[in-house]
């Protein structure tokens, strides 16, 4: 089903959420446009990093030169592989790039241990296959075939979670720009990529060893690393805006408390780096302490405060929600979080830090 409205949809695709901005960019776009693209490179860049003169918001917080390199990669015959730590907005960036280039970000393959070539290339309507044999009518195109046939960008999320032999089904589409359908006779058995087709893949650096890519496939991608947000104020603003939007969609009318978010972002950054703001060494958590995870925790804190007490989430709620994050990967992470709250929060100034230190008793097993 094609999504054309945001009403009642939990998360509409980027081309629907920002349809007005895309329309303004198309109307004002007078720069050279690569074959098959919906926007020029300049307009596509403005869609992602923002343009105040056209009322286009900034959607990705990161190095603008990364966006330039990614767009140039997509204009070539090589695919684009975004790598980085979990939660660094690789999937968001791939969605925005696909929406800008093709006007469609929904041709998505979710990689995993159970992903098969059928889910990537094509499968069959078996009732029609039995009745008619292999025909174009009985063919069920998957994202790769549809992207090649219509000249669209295909997104491949978590490519290294797929088995190696499944990954390598991309070799011919990326090098020869053709997909063979041997069951179909004649010209129908060869699908040639139209202008505008390319592939954006993502891979977490923590998971790349699960099913590392073959050298042949690596050569067909340009690699770009997406780094965590370096600036505290930028990360805090992002967490505040994203968590506020999520809370609003969840029916919460009270915005998140900024002092609680300051504590949250500080804790995440220190637990991620293994060092406090005054330089004290500390144990890093094995769990992912990313900006995306911070947004999720801020959302949970706001929900907990609103639906349990009818108020904004507090630092006590924060401790309870942090426990769920810390317990994901290793039982030892919960003990590390407890030591962090006991040893690295009492010396800080501000009532919110005192509340956090006192709320450490709310941790499971405390």
From TrEMBL:
InterPro entries: ATPase_dyneun-rel_AAA, CbbQ/NirQ/NorQ/GpvN, P-loop_NTPase. One of its GO terms (molecular function) is ATP hydrolysis activity. Transmembrane segments: none annotated. Residues 79-221 form the ATPase dynein-related AAA domain. Signal peptide: none annotated. This is MoxR-like ATPase. It comes from Actinoplanes italicus. The lineage of its organism: Bacteria, Bacillati, Actinomycetota, Actinomycetes, Micromonosporales.
């Amino acid at each position: 089903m094609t999504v054309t409205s945001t009403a009642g949809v939990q998360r509409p695709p980027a081309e629907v959420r920002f349809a007005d901005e895309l329309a303004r960019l198309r109307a004002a776009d007078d720069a050279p446009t690569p074959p098959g693209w919906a926007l020029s490179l300049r307009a596509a860049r403005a869609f992602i990093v923002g343009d105040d003169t056209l009322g286009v918001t900034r959607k990705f917080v990161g190095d603008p030169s990364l966006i330039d390199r990614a767009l140039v990669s997509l204009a070539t015959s090589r695919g684009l592989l975004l790598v980085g730590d979990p939660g660094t907005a690789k999937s968001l960036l791939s969605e925005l790039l696909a929406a800008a280039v093709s006007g469609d970000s929904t041709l998505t393959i979710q990689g995993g241990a159970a992903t098969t070539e059928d889910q990537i290339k094509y499968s069959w309507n078996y009732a029609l296959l039995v009745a008619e044999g292999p025909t174009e009518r009985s063919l069920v195109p998957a994202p790769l075939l549809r992207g090649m046939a219509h000249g669209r960008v295909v997104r491949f999320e978590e490519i290294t979670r797929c088995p190696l032999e499944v990954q390598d089904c991309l070799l011919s589409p990326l090098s020869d720009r053709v997909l063979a359908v041997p069951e179909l006779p004649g010209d129908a058995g060869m699908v040639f990529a139209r202008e505008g087709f390319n592939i954006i893949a993502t891979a977490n650096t923590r998971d790349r060893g699960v099913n590392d890519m073959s050298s042949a496939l690596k050569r067909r991608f340009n690699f770009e690393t997406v780094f965590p947000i370096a600036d505290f104020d930028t990360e805090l603003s992002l967490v505040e805006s994203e968590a506020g939007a999520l809370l609003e969609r969840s029916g919460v009318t009270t915005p998140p408390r900024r002092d609680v978010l300051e504590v949250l972002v500080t804790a995440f950054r220190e637990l991620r780096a293994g060092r406090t703001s005054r330089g004290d060494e500390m144990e890093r958590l094995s769990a992912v302490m990313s900006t995306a995870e911070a947004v999720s925790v801020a959302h949970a804190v706001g929900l907990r405060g609103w639906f349990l007490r009818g108020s904004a989430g507090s630092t006590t709620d924060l401790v309870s929600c942090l426990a769920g994050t810390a317990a994901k990967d290793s039982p030892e992470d919960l003990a590390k979080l407890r030591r962090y709250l006991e040893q690295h929060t009492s010396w800080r100034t501000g009532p919110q830090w005192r509340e956090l230190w006192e709320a450490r008793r709310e941790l499971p097993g405390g």
